[in-house]
């Protein structure tokens, strides 16, 4: 008789593979925004959009889809597991990408972006929930920093890739790239990532249990305060992303083909800050790093406002880029630690908590980014004022969460 091969070996990716896959799951979000930015001009021309700010809707429609769907995926994953929830989301993302490829209506393109966002939201929620399933405390913060470092390399290459694709054809080819990315993530995850939901944390499908998990998230002062701070900071980032093409490419600095280079430099600085955060968080703790980061962000943002006022809304390119890069560097020292601090007390409801926090912060970021982006007036003053105001509000949210005390050793 042939020898039995025994039970199949469980899937268990190595630590670098785990971080890379989680980062790619989150990176789909940034890729599906940033590689489309160089095509804004072509899309506006194809659809004869009268207002140059209208094309920004493609960013914020996508973000709203991400925000709204996160409530569904997190609670679903606590019931059926992380794997089925993510694979279902990737199927929706694929459907949205296909619709974007065939539509000849700007309104339907916006619908396709919402569908893409609904699908991509599964990656964002599952990434955080899976990390929380396996890690906690400073180790979770370290993992999230490494994930953010990889995640933030996406904007380094995505606009350049978008520009390269445009050199070979129409903006529709960019959606082909998005479709391919979705299929790659689905195959990699299905083949290599095990189910991480702890059996004792699996929830029955119960509206009461789901509501209790959300209520725990909302009523926990630390979780809700840091989530609010994270949403405000992300709002500043989305305002930058939505306005970047007009600021650097077409209306103010008119960089043209150099726009992806400037965008990549700022993203590279954010990635470097995430790497630094991953190495420092074990020694200094999440609170010390994030509190220093948000205070520094406010200072850099006030510098942006001062430069905008002194130079009549159009400061020299190098000065403005330096101030934005400083703010984004500090952003990357802040937001991953805000996220980890918010999730730390919510391990028993990680999927539902990640879902609600993702919904809350992404919706906040989309609406704030849309408001600041629509205020674009041919100068950098609106985005500079947005950065400063949002940074100050984020600092106030942290002060509320910590009952007025900053720089705890945690």
UniProtKB/TrEMBL annotation:
Keywords: Cell inner membrane, Cell membrane, Membrane, Transmembrane, Transmembrane helix, Transport. The chain crosses the membrane at residues 21-43, 55-73, 85-102, 108-131, 143-165, 171-191, 223-241, 261-281, 293-311, 317-335, 347-368, 380-401. The keyword DNA-binding does not apply. GO terms for molecular function: xenobiotic transmembrane transporter activity. GO terms for biological process: xenobiotic detoxification by transmembrane export across the plasma membrane. GO terms for cellular component: plasma membrane. Belongs to the major facilitator superfamily. Bcr/CmlA family. Its main location: membrane. It is found in: Cell inner membrane; Cell membrane. The lineage of its organism: Bacteria, Pseudomonadati, Pseudomonadota, Alphaproteobacteria, Hyphomicrobiales. It is a multi-pass membrane protein. Residues 18-406 form the Major facilitator superfamily (MFS) profile domain. It comes from the Bacteria. This is Bcr/CflA family efflux transporter. InterPro entries: Efflux_drug-R_Bcr/CmlA, MFS, MFS_dom, MFS_trans_sf.
